[in-house]
Give the backbone structure.
Amino acid sequence: MSTSLPLGARLSRGIDRVTGAALGAHQTAVIRIGLSFTWLVFLLREWPNRHEMYGPDGPWSWEMARRLTADNHAFTALLWSDGGLWFEAVYAFAVVTAALLALGWRTRTMTVLSMVGVLSLQNRSVFLGDGGDNVIHLMALYLILMRCGRVWSLDARRAAKRAGQPAGPDLTGIVLWACCGAALAAAMVLGDTRMSWTEHGPLPGIGWATALWALWLVQGLWWLAKRYGPGEPRAVLDVLANLLHNAGLLVIMAEVCLIYATAGWYKIQGSRWQDGTALYYPLHLDYFSPWPELSHALAGSGLLVLLLSYGTVAVQVAFPFTLLNRRVKNVLLAVMMLEHLGIALLLGLPFFSLAMIVADAVFLPTSFLRRLGAAVGRARDRLLPARAQQLPVQRESDEAATRTLVG
Amino acid sequence: MESDDGHERAGALAGLSLPARLVVAAGAAVIAVTAAVHLGMVFLHVAPSNTVTKQNAAAIDDYIYPEYEQNWKFFAPNPLQQNVAVQARAELRGPDGRTTVTGWTDFTAQDGAEIRHNLIPSHTQQNELRRAWDFYTNSHDVKEVPNGLRGALSEQYIRRIVVGRLGGGQDGRTVQRVQVRAVTTLVAPPSWSDEKNEPKPAYRVLGWWPVTAADRTEAKNR
């Protein structure tokens, strides 16, 4: 943006930008795909342990969770019934919605359903999680605000196929919407949901009952406007959706900055980070050294431990400020992603690391993400040549090739 | 950050009527204020205790908990410098009514063995017992007196984990009571430093807890 423009002109350009488009289509698609993939793999990995972790008879029993949530009012559908079948259904629901969100099928509905799955499991057993669960929890809430299915989704592919044709009634959408409404109504009538209309919800004064019904109504309103009010009503909703998306994107970016700033600034105050021995200690903790030979070899070098300890603090503190310079930011992003790969292996925290790498990716340049998407599309075509020949039309442009990433 | 390619239409507001513009303006104001309040609250929640957070602690907590709670102090201000092993032993009662006490079982060591050479450790191995013990210590004072609901819940949680892992009993003898202790060993200072620390572990031994039917539900289902 040119700085020579007068303030008024710059302001109006800014307003055009945040009302006219959902910014960061590729970045938000990466957040959607990456985090729901992380959550999905986590759920599948913990499948054999699911009863112990979230089941009604696990060490953190249904009754105990009930007592705690009566106190802290966290949202979890798992406590609506103590039946074993209900537990299995909710776990399966979390798996399916995570998969569908990653694929971008009915993305806006899936962001809500997937959030219900994430919160239901995590809030059910709140003493099981770590930083990775925390990232997934927050992002699941923020993703509801996003138009994150504009690229690299089944929705985008369907929209491209339909381009130019008159909009049909969208039977699948109507059925899905009706099912969601019926399920919510049934839950509130039959289950002991304890959802308030005005309290203990995602925002002050808005209970979960209000929030979920409002999301459902907005979805219906959207469909109505698309079908019967293609002029101004549709345009107004479009602008509001863009504004909400862009605010959500800002919140996600600020959240990532807060994560690094907190992690960095608190470390500066620690004597072990000051004397450069900090990293030595986690490498000798039984819970965080799955490869003791490797950890101890690394910790054996005083110089290496010093460099990595100082480097970690420097990078974490510096990160938010490097956003002012594109090139420095990109270098730092690469460094942080590599560090998280190291953490995944050395400290045995693969899901935390993956979630952080995905969160970092919100700052990756669009050009890089498009190239990455094209490369993934080509790799898929090579692996599944029959499919590529069936759909030659998809590979005509760069944009179409990237769209096949998850299609 | 670059703009969304191809979707940007300059002047989305240009063709709108006045009422439509007012709706958009109202929506924009609500969204902007909400986002600003949210980010402000999250910032105050993760920031160290300061003038503003001290004066508005209740309002900030009301906003943040439970769904926006977060903690990013990874290994900060200082990393944990000790290994805490949670161990337990059981009092068993045989069919003849005689009681025997088992040796200590080190459940943290069992977790460690399962984490070793594991690319994707489970939360049941890495977090369950570790965080349950944190929960216990955070909700009890040094005399092991629980502080309210959380204290009571943490005791039951530890007991259920231990009873579940002990497996309910041995050779037809049922677990009557369990005793839990934590053995804390400081990580030895680096070989390249001249620091010394206490090599002897410290013990925190809790009293015997009677095992009730409510503690056994998991053991039964295993």
